[in-house]
Amino acid sequence: MQQKPILLIDDDQSLTELLSEFLAGEGINVEVCNDGLSGLQLARSQNYSLILLDVMIPGLTGFEVLQALGGAHHTPIIMLTAKGEEADRVLGLTLGADDYLPKPFNPDELLARIQAIFRRIDIIARQRAEQPISLNQLILTPAKRTVTFQDRHIDLTGTEFSMLQLLMQRADQVVSKESLSMNILNRRLQKFDRGIDMHISNIRRKLQHQGKQDCIATVRGVGYIFNSTDTDS
Predict the structure, then answer these.
(1) Does residue 231 lie in a domain region?
(2) What is the predicted pLDDT for the residue at 83?
(3) What is the tally of structural domains in the chain?
(4) Are residues 112 and 143 both part of a single domain?
(5) 80, 97 in Cβ contact below 8 A?
(6) What are the DSSP calls for the chain, one per residue?
(7) What CATH number has the domain bearing residue 168?
(8) What is the CATH number of the domain that holds 102?
(9) Which structural domain range is residue 54 located in?
(10) Spatial distance between the Cα atoms of 73 and 67, rounded to a whole number of angstroms
(11) Would the pLDDT of 51 be above 90?
């Protein structure tokens, strides 16, 4: 199956050439941009299946590109961060990135991350026929990929939407971090990986911003639970 192109925003030309050639061999077309401003313009004007975004790029940093795209962008974004820079990874997820990969990385691991997102996109396409989920005035509509609370729209990234959907589908049941990682990110949970926690934190913040009190409880050492009991009355 022919894939839509992905956008790689990185100023390391040797890396971009290597990745372009490697991914082309896997049937993935890569469009390369070497600075943040041009990358932002392309991201806004073209329809990409995925964006690979380096943190340290000229013009606009990767974080500034994320901020300019806004938290409700629909194109999945994988941040490329310096190895060991946990603060960069946390900030990237907070600003709306779907995943991150520390440099240097194995191209096979990058390919696995990309394929996991493509599989999620296929699942999303199949969800179009699913019925909305309504719990205490919070309505999640798979067909439109929307979430509303008391008719107020809540902007979520693709990863955040999928995580909230899974939690609402299993309301009043504990969903482990491992389950969230496998079902949404399509990979096993890694030790000290805070990605799931950051996505849940983003969801909570966005729900609360629109007046929906905290309905996602933390089960320490296990995972999370969506409480169907109305906490807003």
Answers:
(1) no
(2) 66
(3) 2
(4) no
(5) no
(6) -PPPPEEEE-S-HHHHHHHHHHHHTTT--EEEE-SHHHHHHHHHHS--SEEEEESS-SSS-HHHHHHHH-TT--S-EEEEEETT-HHHHHHHHHTT-SEEEEES--HHHHHHHHHHHHHHHHHHHHGGGSPPEEETTEEEETTTTEEEETTEE----HHHHHHHHHHHHTTTSEEEHHHHIIIIISSPPPTT--HHHHHHHHHHHHHHHTT----EEEETTTEEEE--S----
(7) 1.10.10.10
(8) 3.40.50.2300
(9) 6-123
(10) 10
(11) yes
Is residue 233 situated within a structural domain?
no
Q: What is the CA radius of gyration of the chain?
A: 18
Q: What is the pTM of this model?
A: 0.65
Q: Which of 81, 16, 66 is nearest to 36 (CA)?
A: 66
Higher confidence at residue 158 or residue 83?
158
**Which domain-ending residue is among 123, 155, 175?**
123
Contact (CB, 8 A) for 158 and 152: no
168: in domain? yes
Dig out the tokens for 109 from the structure. Answer: 């691991």
Note whether 109 and 25 are same-domain residues: yes
